[in-house]
Amino acid sequence: MLDFRIRQLQCFLTLSDLLNYGKTARALYMSQPTITFQIKSLEEAFGVKLFKRDRQQVRLTDAGVAFREYAQSIMDTVDAAQDCLSGLHTRLRLHISCGPVGQFILLPAVIRTLAADYPEFDLEVTELTTEQMMARLPEGKIDALLMVGSLPIKGMRFDPICQEPLVGIVSRLSPLATRRAISVEDLRSTPIIASRLKDCRFHQPFLHNLLAPFGITPRIIESPQSCSVQFAYAAAGEGVAISTASMATCGFPHVTVLPFAERLAEFQLGLVSMQSNESPALKVFRKVVMSCARATLAGRDKSSFFPAHAPQPAPLPFVDRCEAS
């Protein structure tokens, strides 16, 4: 079994070019005895003499001439592997998860922009529950959360993006679907579809706090946190799903999106990361997200969200407070 080192090949190739032990030692910043030892070890590994040496000159043997091509090929492969691994180390790479508005509204524009402006950017997107997001972000298993609310995570950075008014999602077969708007009073008798507590500890308390000023205690129909699943529950007539206005543009089947007749508190969405994460990839991603948010979210015409007869919610304010770096 052959046993030789990359350093031995470097010594061999340099000596085959310079044909001088002293010059080779200086070129490789090694001592001349070390060069002699490396060449001797390589010759012993292959069982052949690679150089002829006398007082006048150093020459390649026939075996040395034949071996030179193979040695150069091996070194070229090693250099290519080093370049590849170095490129992987420096490549912009990010692992994110999204809230519903991020996944359905903003993420497509972000992916398009990254592909056009940063073709080497490696973006991995994973669908997680809120509880999974809160566990994995501090552990470094995920780098950023797109279009979610501010979460109680120690050391978190929250970059606000926009504020979203709330809307009701109801089945097209529901009597509520014929209304111009849905009222919180309708929620006294109509169940609300909400995430299971094991998926998100905040959704159900949020609904209780939202309706408490109206003296309403919501009747909760628990569902997986998936937005698509909750809208499917709504389409089946199980209750009302409360979401943000942007989701009205997604065209989910068999549901009607209605604004609330009352002015409810808007929901602040942003980009969440850890303050300790200062990676170049995250800085690029933050810049792209804010740019796409300006183009996708700011100044949208809300009349396209709802039927012409429905009362229109206030425009979604775009919050540009992200550092450019």
Give a short overview.
With 325 residues, the protein is an alpha/beta fold. It has helices at 6-18, 21-27, 32-46, 62-90, 100-117, 130-139, 203-211, 227-235, 280-296; strands spanning 51-53, 58-60, 93-98, 122-125, 144-148, 156-164, 166-171, 192-195, 220-223, 240-244, 255-259, 267-274. The protein is rod-shaped, with a radius of gyration of 32 Å.
Question: In words, what does this structure look like?
Answer:
The chain starts with 5 loop residues before the first helix and ends in a 29-residue tail after the last helix. It has helices spanning 6-18, 21-27, 32-46, 62-90, 100-117, 130-139, 203-211, 227-235, 280-296; strands at 51-53, 58-60, 93-98, 122-125, 144-148, 156-164, 166-171, 192-195, 220-223, 240-244, 255-259, 267-274. α1 packs across α2 (21-27). Mean pLDDT is 88; it is low at 301-325. The chain has a five-stranded mixed sheet with strand order 4-3-5-12-6, with helices on both faces. A five-stranded mixed sheet has the order 9-8-10-7-11, with helices on both faces. A two-stranded antiparallel sheet has the order 1-2. The longest helix is centred in the first third of the chain and has 29 residues, at 62-90. The chain has nine helices and twelve strands. By secondary structure, the chain is an alpha/beta fold. It has three domains: 6-90, Arc Repressor Mutant, subunit A; 93-163 and 267-302, Periplasmic binding protein-like II (D-Maltodextrin-Binding Protein, domain 2); 166-259, D-Maltodextrin-Binding Protein, domain 2 (3-Layer(aba) Sandwich), CATH 3.40.190.10.
